[in-house]
Design brief:
Helix content: 55-70%
Distance between the termini: 60 Å
Number of strands: 10
Structural class: alpha/beta
Number of helices: 22
Number of domains: 2
CATH topology of the largest domain: ABC transporter transmembrane region fold
CATH architecture of the largest domain: Up-down Bundle
Strand content: 5-15%
CATH superfamily of the largest domain: ABC transporter type 1, transmembrane domain
Strand order of the largest sheet: 6-7-8-3-9-10
Shape: elongated
Radius of gyration: 35 Å
Length: 591
């Protein structure tokens, strides 16, 4: 094992120990119960020895000793059940704690992280990796009790017959050496298997989420080939791990049996010569037999520990990620809305921003400056890739500009808590996502539990009420995955209703009518106009009918605001504006 691999192994175990420290009390109780189980188990061979030597060979009190053996076995069985309960309770608590922490971290990480992260990798860390940790923790009380059993048996054997004990236990140091070598070898193999499983999960996730595209292009064979490649990789790495186990685990099984053979030979001779009782030999052999499973389990537990340590390293890659976008140390609050103080003023000052794509800064905005008055609606018009949607992402602080600043009602966005900012800015994205839930719950997503009348009113304003009432269960109809059971226009109207319920002081319509058939656009134009009235609104659009809803239109070109005025003014006076609208005249999606 290289020094780097040793360092990774130590780091994994350090993380594992730090995690277990959170449950010292529960694990200690499990270990204590395991100790009581050990006492019951180690008592049985001693009672068996006495039953043979006294109950059979001397006074015939076999029933008495039989009842004692039964009592000791009952005690061991009772505490075995208790030990198992504590083991599973603590392991599930560990898994739950890590899963909740990981999920919170994934939600809290900035959008830039999710742009690069593979969904399958995140799913693998949230499921299979955490199951590896759970599988190890459940073995801890069992492991502790078995270690206690090994120590107790060794002490009893040496007190019973030191010479015979030394002969029978001679293989133990070799078992320890084998276990250590096994631990060092199995760690990188297990880590490789887990990494390949994450790659497989990513292929499955992409295939399921993109099944319509795959079927549309008849590319099932392409995805099947990807899956086969990843499945073969898992099989290859798993066979490497299996080869390592096949080399070491048989030795761990065999070595204690060598001691048993020695006891039968040497101990049997001593019984014949009268130096040892028959009961003593039976008890000695029973104790040695009791060592075989714990010794083997030690190797298995080490392997479980290596898997758990490897899994925690992968989980910690996410947990240790620092969010690039986070709440300020000292936050400010937005001013309260009032008649004397209208809210929703936006100020973009000298914004420069570019996306990090492949370690290259792809510049989008180059000194953009824009002022939006409270209650004003502004349409942002620009060619594809000009940065229109980027403005919405910066406003939500999905990203922060490299230079310049954005203020809402006079407060820099970086001085606001993210939760307050995102409650104050509602967005209807071009790519509409609905959840596998009822229509009502999707509309009330931002405010769960809100009165149903508010939901219905929002749906009517968004032009969604009519088609919702035609659904099988109306507002209680459960939508399919991502809402694909609805048309694109229907999904977008529900998304608009969702933004209405949120009641933000700033509304962003990011190509919100792109999926609506032009012949039906009039159905929601009046609704949008009603929602926009008196509310600061940024309209990112390519259709003239939608742009006309705004009080003012601005042309975004080469990262700056190139022109500003009403839609009709810009049509008459700006050649670039006319070119942009002409280029985007064809609808992107037809319902």
């Amino acid at each position: 094992m290289t020094e780097e691999s040793k360092g990774v192994t130590r780091e994994g175990w350090r993380l594992l120990i730090a995690t277990l420290r959170l449950q010292v009390r529960g694990l200690s109780m499990g270990a204590g119960v395991g100790l009581a189980w050990t006492l019951g188990k180690v008592a049985v061979p001693q009672l068996t020895r006495l039953a043979i030597d006294k109950g059979i060979e001397k006074d015939g009190s076999l029933v008495f000793w039989t009842m004692l053996i039964l009592a000791a076995a009952t005690v061991a069985g009772f505490f075995a059940a208790c030990r198992r309960y504590f083991a599973f309770r603590e392991s599930r608590l560990t898994e739950t704690y890590l899963r909740e922490r990981l999920f919170a971290q994934i939600q809290g990480l900035h959008v830039g992280f999710h742009d690069k992260a593979q969904t399958g990798q995140l799913m693998s860390r949230s499921s299979s990796d955490l199951q590896q940790v759970q599988g190890f923790v459940v073995n801890i009380p069992i492991f502790v009790s078995q270690i206690t059993m090994v120590l107790g048996v060794v002490v009893i054997l040496f007190f019973s017959d030191p010479i015979l004990a030394a002969v029978s236990l001679a293989p133990l140091p070799f078992i320890n050496v084998s276990a250590r070598r096994f631990s060092n070898k199995i760690h990188p193999a297990v880590l490789a298997v887990q990494q390949e499983q994450a790659q497989l999960a990513n292929v499955v996730e992409e295939t399921v989420s993109g099944v319509r595209v795959i079927k549309g292009f008849g590319a099932e064979g392409v995805q099947q080939a990807k899956l086969q490649t990843e499945a073969d990789d898992i099989r290859r790495e798993s066979m490497k791990a299996a080869y390592i186990r096949s080399r070491f685990l048989p030795a761990i099984d065999l070595l204690p049996s060598l001691g048993l053979v020695a006891v039968l030979g040497l101990g049997g001779h001593r019984v014949i010569t009268g130096d040892m009782t028959l009961g003593g030999l039976v008890a000695f052999n029973t104790y040695l037999t009791m060592l075989i499973w714990p010794m083997r389990n030690i190797g298995m537990t080490i392997a479980f520990g290596q898997r758990a340590a490897s899994a925690l390293l992968r989980v910690n890659e996410i947990l240790s990620e620092e969010p690039a976008i986070k709440d300020p140390a000292k936050s400010k609050h937005l001013p309260k809305a009032g008649l004397a103080q209208p809210t929703g003023a936006l100020s973009f000052q000298n914004i420069r921003f570019g996306y990090d794509i492949g370690h290259t800064d792809v510049r989008v905005l180059e000194g953009l400056t824009l002022e939006v008055q409270p209650g004003e609606s502004v349409a942002i018009v620009g060619a594809t890739g000009s940065g229109k949607s980027t403005i919405a992402r910066l406003l939500l602080r999905f990203y922060d500009p490299q230079t310049g600043g954005i203020a809402l009602d006079g407060i820099d966005l970086r001085e606001l808590r993210l939760s307050e900012l995102r409650r104050s800015v509602g967005v209807v994205f071009e790519d509409t996502l609905l959840f596998h839930d009822t229509v009502s719950s999707n509309i009330a997503f931002a405010k769960p539990g809100i009165d149903s009348d508010v939901v219905v009113r929002a749906a009517k304003l968004a032009g969604a009420h009519e088609f919702i009432m035609q659904l099988p269960e109306k507002y209680d109809t459960v939508l399919g995955e991502r809402g694909f059971s609805l048309s694109g226009g229907q999904r977008q109207r529900i998304a608009i209703a969702r933004a209405i319920v949120a009641d933000p002081r700033v509304l962003v319509l990011d190509d919100a009518t792109s999926a609506v058939d032009p012949t039906k656009e009039h159905e929601i134009r009046d609704a949008l106009a009603t929602v926009m009235r008196g509310r600061t609104t940024l309209v990112i659009a390519h259709r003239p009918a939608t742009i006309e809803l705004a009080d003012r239109a601005v042309l975004l070109d080469e990262g700056v605001i190139a022109a500003s005025g009403s839609h009709h003014e810009l049509l008459e006076t700006n050649e670039k504006y006319r070119e942009v609208l002409a280029a985007m005249a064809t609808p992107k999606v037809v319902e």
